[in-house]
Design goal:
The radius of gyration is 18 Å and the shape is elongated. With 115 residues, the protein is an all-alpha fold. The N and C termini lie far apart (40 Å). 63% of the residues lie in helices and 0% in strands.
C-alpha cells in the first residue's frame, strides 16, 4: 500500500520559478487568471498556459528519461539499477526500465540532442 505521506508529497507541484514569490503565498493566485473577468480572455489565457504546461511536461519527461539512462549506463562504475532509479524518482521498477530505454533512444539521437 502506498505511503500516505509520500502520496501527499507527490501531489504538491514543484515551485514555478517564473511566478512571483508573493503570489505563491496566495492560494487563490494562479498566473493571474483569477483577475481576468472576460470569459473569452480567460479561456485564451488558460489555454495558453495549458499548452505551455503540456510542452514543459513533455520536455521534463525527456530530461528524466535521459537522466535515468545515464544513471543506468553500464559503463558507469556507480551506475544505478532500475530499482534504485525507481525508488529515487518515485516510480515503479517497470516504469523505470521503460524510462531508461526511452532515454537511451533519446541519447542515440532521437530526441534531446536535436533540440
Amino acid at each position: 500500500m502506498a505511503d500516505p505521506e509520500r502520496s501527499q508529497r507527490r501531489l504538491r507541484p514543484a515551485p514555478l520559478l517564473f511566478e512571483p514569490s508573493e503570489a505563491v503565498t496566495d492560494p487563490e493566485h494562479f498566473f493571474d487568471l483569477e483577475s481576468i473577468d472576460d470569459p473569452a480572455a480567460l479561456l485564451d489565457r488558460a489555454t495558453e498556459l495549458t499548452l505551455a504546461f503540456r510542452a514543459a511536461t513533455d520536455r521534463a519527461l525527456e530530461f528524466q528519461a535521459v537522466a535515468a539512462a545515464q544513471l543506468a549506463d553500464p559503463r558507469r562504475f556507480d551506475r544505478l539499477t532500475a530499482a534504485d532509479i525507481a525508488e529515487r524518482a518515485e516510480w515503479t521498477e517497470d516504469y523505470a526500465k521503460k524510462m531508461v530505454e526511452f532515454g537511451r533512444d533519446l541519447l542515440r539521437g532521437d530526441g534531446l540532442a536535436g533540440k
